[in-house]
Amino acid sequence: MKRDEIELDEADRRLLGAVQKDASVSQAELADLAAVSPSQVSRRLARLKEFGVLRGIVGVLEPKLAGLTCSAIIRVRLRDHAAANVRAFRDLVERMDEVTLCVMTTGETDYLIKVVARDLPHFQEIVQSKLLRCAAIAHMESSIILEHLKDTTALPLGDT
Fold first, then answer.
1. Which of 39, 57, 121, 159 could form a disulfide with 23 if both were Cys (CB 3.0 to 4.6 A apart)?
2. Cβ–Cβ contacts within 10 Å for residue 147, how many?
3. Are 91 and 100 spatial neighbours (Cβ–Cβ below 8 Å)?
4. Tens-place pLDDT, residues 22-72
């Protein structure tokens, strides 16, 4: 079976749903929530990790309580789509811890990135010292996030 051909059964979906809600619960609790045995929890999680369905188990932080009070969405348009420009931009983004999301999009914008910063002056420093120095970028437009109406890492898996 190839990596992208994994079939998820209902127990897998319940297990993934439970892990998305709170990965810190015990294997016994996960087993109850997924309606499988504790030994099945270990085997299923290992299989889901092996196939890349479960990329990792992490703690989700509250940015403001972690001292990151400013977030922004930045729309980026590259100068052109030459391989060197694309690579330069991608390398920059990969090196920037402040970038928490980067997606390639259709339309007038090539990429959307989400940046977190301590405050507005720190955001300005990030833009001026990192992003504006990237020769691959032709145009940037940023919007400061005023309020998060929904911010989740949970995927809709159906009834879990």
1. 57
2. 4
3. no
4. 999 999 999 999 999 999 999 999 999 999 999 998 889 999 999 999 999
Count of domains for the chain: 2
**Both tokens assigned to 160:** 């879990």
Nearest alpha-carbon partner for 110 in 129, 132, 82: 82
Does some domain include residue 124?
yes
Other CB atoms within 10 A of residue 68 CB: 19
Token duo for residue 56: 């990792």
Residue 24 CA to residue 16 CA, distance in Å, equals 13
Domain CATH for 32: 1.10.10.10
Q: Which residues contact 63 (CB under 8 A, 6 or more apart)?
A: 69, 71, 116
